[in-house]
Amino acid sequence: MEETSNSPLWRYTSMKVGGEARQLFLPTHAEDLVALIERLKREGQPWHVLGGGSNMLISSDGVDGAVIRMTQMTSLTNPEADLLEADAGTRLPHLAKFAASLGLSGLEFAVGIPGTVGGAVVMNAGAHGSCMSNVLESATVANAESGQVETLTNEQLKFQYRSSAIDPSKHIVLSARLRMRPDEASKIQAKTRENEEYRWRTQPLGWPNLGSTFKNPEPTRSAGFLLDQSGAKELKEGHAAVSAVHANFVINLGGAHTNEILQLLRRMQATVQEKYQIRLHPEWKTLGRFGELEREIWNGNQ
Ligand SMILES: Cc1cc2nc3c(=O)[nH]c(=O)nc-3n(C[C@H](O)[C@H](O)[C@H](O)COP(=O)(O)OP(=O)(O)OC[C@H]3O[C@@H](n4cnc5c(N)ncnc54)[C@H](O)[C@@H]3O)c2cc1C
């Protein structure tokens, strides 16, 4: 298992922002990870789990304790005709294309989501009218409290809109079993390609970002629509700006500091609050040393 000290974390998030972690670990197997958790517990070191870093705002002031990055655990198999088994570090675009090539339907929605399977289970990632909970049969997790490896069923994971019962400070997703629907490969591949091309047209893919900033407050009213109508596309703070392509995307114009990003989020919330009296709640997770402003923005988040 790779282990480094004082690692700059900006490299490992799609926002390209983040200070150092005292230690960074990259486990390659479930056994490595379980042993690592036991070791960190013995040493009394706090630890945090990072997947693809595509939904995680990492403080520019760094992170206390160890960071465990799951992206080296990437085994992907097809043990039964309609079943896929993917390790936590498998990237969703790769998984979606693999499924399509085998004539397995159900993951066409995931092709444009740049996270890992572990992060997607935690977040119940979704797009194009579907989400992980529609295909996930069970997840294997390491329980950091008991030291045991457990299998949690779809029902036990209590999926909701962009959330699950998994608390990454206690449970680390090791792998997932995905139950698929066999269909014509060419049809599935065409749908997968269509979803991928839709992303290129509608998202600011050239700029570092973390996808949707805020959750949709209601299924019929998207955060992007409310922000757009409130004039949020004009907002900018230092090196961070609201994308001109999609009002629910914040982009790093180069060298943004998390203080600038937080100031921008506060202003985005305020514009929608003022026009619609609706409070937007962030979809992103945060990691590292933050102050009062972060607590204020995330206050009341589910
Ligand atoms: C351009 C772009 C487009 C996006 N589009 C979408 C979209 O359409 N739909 C959508 O839902 N999301 C979207 N996202 C957000 C993001 O890709 C998803 O939320 C994704 O599921 C996050 O996965 P990750 O591996 O990057 O997780 P991270 O950002 O690394 O972590 C997210 C959370 O999961 C936890 N976590 C990660 N891995 C594990 C693990 N193995 N075990 C336990 N906890 C873990 C972390 O601790 C953190 O709490 C987009 C992001 C970008 C940048």
Count, helices: 7
Main sheet: strands, sense, barrel: 5 strands, antiparallel
The fraction of residues assigned to DSSP E strands is 25-35%
Count of the separate structural domains: 3
Question: SSE order, as H and E?
Answer: EEHEEEEEHEHEEEEEEHEHEEEHEH
Strand order across the largest sheet:
6-7-13-11-12
- CATH class placement of the largest domain: Alpha Beta
Overview of this protein structure:
The protein has 302 residues and is of the alpha+beta class. The chain has three domains: 2-69, Uridine Diphospho-n-acetylenolpyruvylglucosamine Reductase, domain 2, CATH 3.30.43; 76-200, Uridine Diphospho-n-acetylenolpyruvylglucosamine Reductase, domain 3 (2-Layer Sandwich), CATH 3.30.465.10; 204-298, UDP-N-acetylenolpyruvoylglucosamine reductase, C-terminal domain (Uridine Diphospho-n-acetylenolpyruvylglucosamine Reductase, domain 1). Helix content is 27%, strand content 28%. It is built from seven helices and 19 strands. Helix 2 (92-101) runs antiparallel to helix 4 (185-202) and helix 6 runs parallel beside helix 7. It is globular and about 50 Å long.
Task: Please render the helix and strand layout as text.
Layout: E1 2-8, E2 20-26, H1 30-43, E3 47-50, E4 56-58, E5 63-69, E6 76-80, E7 83-87, H2 92-101, E8 104-105, H3 117-123, E9 126-127, E10 130-131, E11 136-143, E12 149-153, E13 171-179, E14 181-182, H4 185-202, E15 209-212, H5 223-229, E16 236-237, E17 240-242, E18 249-252, H6 258-276, E19 285-287, H7 292-298
Parallel strand pairs: 2-5, 3-5, 4-19
Antiparallel strand pairs: 1-2, 6-7, 7-13, 8-14, 9-10, 11-12, 11-13, 15-18, 16-17, 17-18
The structure holds flavin-adenine dinucleotide.
Residues 14, 49-56, 70, 88, 113-116, 118-120, 122-123, 125-127, 166, 168, 172-173, 203, 209-211, 285 line the site of flavin-adenine dinucleotide (FAD).
